[in-house]
Amino acid sequence: MLAEHPIDVMLTAPDLGAVRQFYGDQVGLDVLIESDDFVTFRCGGDSRLVVTRTTTPSTETSTRLPVSQS
Q1: How many Cα atoms within 13 Å fall on the side-chain side of residue 26?
Q2: Structure pTM?
């Protein structure tokens, strides 16, 4: 079921400039939306990687993969 739908991977990072450089310049993902608070990259199909700015380190032990309703 999940393989049939696009997903949005949501991560946090303190330095969005480093995130943009890594995922945009090194990995080669296109930036869809960029602001002072987050960067959204296009992935395969209609999937996206969204990285939001954080000032506190994450204590979560898992990553959330919400299914897009397109």
Answers
A1: 7
A2: 0.75
